[in-house]
Input
Amino acid sequence: MIIYDSHVLPWALVGALVIIAMTAWSYRRSTWMAGKTTHTRSGGHGRMILAIVLKFVALSLLVMALLNPRRIEDIPKPGANIVPIIFDTSQSMSVVGESGTSRLQRAWSRIQADRWIESIEETFTPEVYLNGQSLMKLRWERGMEVPMPEAKHSRLLGGLESLRLRMRGRPVAGVVWVTDGNLTDGDVSEIRTAARDLDLPIYPIDVFADEDLADLRVDSIEVQQSNFETSPVRVSASAI
Output
């Protein structure tokens, strides 16, 4: 954003108008004098137009200098804003890929190796959370062991709501979410609504970078049973 000295602006405009009026009067007088003179140099009119243009350029630069324009940038104070970093600890994060490590292990190792939490600390205050049965804050230390992904569902919708309550009234710059994206406690429209209510940018971290496994999810289960004791129970499941 560019600002100017407001108290100088009226005087600068008045001065500009006076100089414009004087320049116009000088131009008309020079034109009248040239018409009265019998010996006029060739190219005099072109030089006069050039002189007027240069005067207006000089006038514009003078007005800008008087206004004292300054550019203002909003730079966040280091450590003033919070960046929550949330790890999904549902059981699907324990799926082992071709590399022999689980999804959570790969994400955890990558974050440890790249030292990007330490780089976030240069500008923001990172807060690490585990999103399992509930949203739990973790005291982050470099080199700490990867947590066990034991939660029975991903709880993305519940995690967003818990985060909104935790961060209410606090300065939050954005949210980093490490998850495989399996939605188990709501549908996509509910997630979008919760993300809008949070009113913060959310940056998901891909945990499938080195994984060729097809991720499965149980979409529906149907059980059929008759009233006869000896009849079998038929269970149909749909996985995607």
About this structure: The CA atoms of residues 112 and 142 lie 7 Å apart. The mean pLDDT is 76. The longest strand covers residues 82-88. The first helix runs from residue 9 to 36.
